[in-house]
Each structure stands twice: as C-alpha cells, then as structure tokens.
Design a protein that fits this description.
Radius of gyration: 25 Å
Bound molecules: adenosine-5'-triphosphate
CATH superfamily of the largest domain: P-loop containing nucleotide triphosphate hydrolases
CATH architecture of the largest domain: 3-Layer(aba) Sandwich
Number of strands: 14
Strand content: 25-35%
Number of helices: 12
GO molecular function: ATP binding
Subcellular location: Cell inner membrane
Strand order of the largest sheet: 6-7-8-3-9-10
Shape: elongated
Distance between the termini: 60 Å
CATH topology of the largest domain: Rossmann fold
Helix content: 25-40%
Order of helices and strands: EEEHEEHEHHHEHEHEEHHHEHEEHE
CATH class of the largest domain: Alpha Beta
InterPro entries: AAA+_ATPase, ABC_transporter-like_ATP-bd, ABC_transporter-like_CS, ACT-like_dom_sf, MetN_ABC, MetN_ABC_transporter-like, NIL_domain, P-loop_NTPase
Largest sheet: 6 strands, mixed
Keywords: Amino-acid transport, ATP-binding, Cell membrane, Membrane, Nucleotide-binding, Translocase, Transport
Domain ABC transporter: 2-241
Length: 347
C-alpha cells in the first residue's frame, strides 16, 4: 500500500545541508500497522512527512496505493492526499471550530454537500466516542479527546492510509492505551493501513505488526514485531529492547564480567524464550542432564502480539565442560541465547 524507493531528503544546501534521510526503502502492505522507531533526530518525522509529500524527498519515489506521488502534478497530488489521513503529536485542531466542524473540515474542502458531511461525520463521532462532545470546542476537551477528534477528522475523507506522527507522545499512559486501542480497532474494522512513527517501544509492542528502526536517517533494521522483541538484529535494537524491558544484569555483576571464559569462571547468559520454548522445563533439564545449577538473577514474562516472551538473566554454575554442554543444549531450543560474559567462581 505504501512503498518508498530509495528515498533521501536533504534540508538546505552547501555547508549547512542536513542529510535527514538516506536511501530509505520501505514497504507497508495493505491492512498492516507498521511502526518506525528511532531516537530524537533520527529522521522519523521527515520520513513520515515524505509519505504524503508534506516534505518532498530530494530523491527517490513515493508510491501510495499504486500511484506515484513523487511524479504527480500539484492538483493530482492534492487529490491523492485524500488517500492519506494524518494525525500529529499536538493534534493540530482548529480552536475556533467545534468538534463537529473540525471533523467536517476536510469534507468542506472537498466541497461535499451539508447532507453528505452530516452523514459522514456522525458515524465517525460515534466510532471515536465523541457524539456527546460534538458541539464543544477543542479547549473544552482532554488530550485524549482532542486526539480522537483528530483521528475522526483524518478518517473523514475515507483514506486508505493513516499516518501517525508521534500520536500518543503528548498523552498519559492510560490515554495512550485507549488511543492505541482505537487505532487498532480502525485497522481491523476499516482495513486501514497505518504507518506510525514513535520513540516508544510500548507503542510498537501494543499495536504494530512490523517495525523499522531508523538511525542517522537510515533504516538499519526491519522485522516482524515478535522477532524484533525476541532477537533484535542491531546493537541499537538491543538497546531499545533492554531499555524497554529494563532487564539488565545487576551492576555489581556487570563489573565482574570477563569477555573470555576461564577454568574457574562460569557464564552469565540472557535467555529470550518464545514459542514452544516458553513451556519447556529447561532449567531442570540443565541440572539433570549436565549437572549445571542455574542461578536466576532476573526474569520477566511479556505478551507481544499474542506471543509469550520470557526473559531471564542467569548464571550457569558448573565446570567448563558442563556449562559448554548446557549452552549447546540451550542453543538447540527455540530460544535466543546471549552470553553476557563470564564471572569468576567465588565458591
Ligand atoms: N526543516 C528543517 N530544516 C533543517 N533541518 C531539519 C529540518 N527538519 C528536520 N531537520 C533535521 O533533520 C534531522 C532529522 O529530523 P527529524 O525531525 O526528522 O527527526 P526525528 O527522528 O523526528 O526527531 P524528533 O523525535 O526529535 O522529532 C535532524 O538532524 C533535524 O535537525
């Protein structure tokens, strides 16, 4: 539904030029929710604004629903933009218009009749839970209600794509949850394709099917959300994940970790379980088959897109041969094993 081909964007020229995006290739299939995550300044806003050409890419092609926006005349582009609804972090509502009139605005600009406008706006207010607020002004609404108005307005032109620019970043956690649930409902009920940018892993975890990681204007990693949370492919991905899970080895242990194994040391591992391995009694197996004791330092279970994800940091205590065999057993299962280092035995 959305296809970016080698999209690059440079702001300014000469020595002050800023390369905000470099050679971005991105495919978002119809009906999916695709997240792009990255740190501040990575290029997220530029990327999403290039999709509806609020920013025109310096080079590359943008194709939405089979039509190349980057090749269109200004008037064709105005029409094509109706296919792309957009919502923003700070809602961008018109303060002197009521809720109803804000939602009606795109339809007025499309010169729809008053009757059509009413027929379209009322179900959207119903869907977003705003029917009883329709005569109120933005100043009378909470942040979550304002974002609901913005969502209803974005849907008024019956777009095929919804672009969300940090749509929940200004909201408290509870309101964020309700807005994400609404976006998911819209995706499922209307089959709308959603591209969202965020710096919050929680958003990706809650509703995205796929995720891309952007850094320095480049898409450095892309994966299904379950895979990304199980085994990110880049150091930055691992940092995002660890930050989100807050699952780090205790500091006093990290200070004692050696990269190399030795005769009198044993490994400290981070295990990420998913799929069948969640229910496999691994720890008792390591003890029974290899004589290795497992000392659990931290553990956590998360549910991500219907998949259970278990995480554990543990010391494998045994001789070098025993722990090597135990690691081989662990690696033969459907789980991700990362050796964080080795600690000297204290016994
Ligand atoms: N209009 C502009 N003119 C010049 N440079 C810009 C402009 N907009 C963005 N940039 C620069 O482009 C780079 C990417 O910015 P962008 O806003 O896309 O990042 P971001 O990931 O959305 O960051 P944030 O999360 O802080 O909003 C940054 O170095 C930024 O300073």
């Amino acid at each position: 539904m959305i296809s970016l081909e080698r999209v690059s964007k440079t702001y300014g020229t000469g020595p002050r030029a800023v390369q905000a995006l470099s050679d971005i290739d991105l495919q978002v299939p119809k009906g999916t929710i695709h997240g792009v995550i990255g740190l501040s300044g990575a290029g997220k806003s530029t990327l999403i604004r290039c999709v509806n050409l609020l920013e025109r890419p310096t080079t590359g092609r943008v194709i939405v629903d089979g039509a190349e926006l980057t090749a269109m005349s200004a008037s064709d582009l105005r029409q094509a933009r109706h296919q792309c609804g957009m919502i923003f972090q700070h809602f961008n509502l018109l303060t002197n218009r009521t809720v109803f009139d804000n939602v009606a605005l795109p339809l007025e600009l499309m010169r729809e009749s008053r009757r059509t406008i009413r027929e379209r706006v009322m179900p959207l207010l119903e869907m977003t839970g705003l029917t009883d607020k329709r005569h109120q002004y933005p100043a009378q609404l909470s942040g979550g209600q304002k974002q609901r108005v913005a969502i209803a307005r974005a849907l008024a032109s019956r777009p095929k794509v919804l672009l969300c620019d940090e749509a929940t970043s200004a909201l408290d956690p509870q309101t964020t949850t309700s807005i994400l649930a609404l976006l998911q409902e819209i995706n499922q009920q209307l089959g709308l394709t959603i591209l969202l940018i965020t710096h919050e892993m929680e958003v990706v975890k809650s509703i995205c099917h796929r995720v891309g990681l952007i850094s320095g204007g480049r898409l450095v990693e892309e994966a299904d959300v379950g895979d990304f949370f199980t085994a990110p492919g880049t150091q930055l991905g691992r940092e995002f994940l660890n930050d989100f899970l807050k699952l780090e080895a205790p500091r006093e242990l990290v200070e004692r970790l050696d990269a190399e194994s030795g005769q009198n040391s044993h490994p400290v591992v981070r295990l990420t379980f998913s799929g069948d391995s969640v229910s496999t009694p691994l720890i008792s197996r390591l003890a029974r088959e290899h004589g290795v004791d497992v000392s659990i330092l931290q553990a956590k279970v998360e549910s991500i897109q219907g998949r259970t994800l278990g995480l554990m940091i543990a010391e494998l205590i045994g001789s070098e041969t025993q722990t090597r065999q135990a690691l081989a057993t662990l690696k033969s299962f459907d789980l991700h094993v990362e050796v964080l280092g080795h600690v000297q035995r204290t016994d």
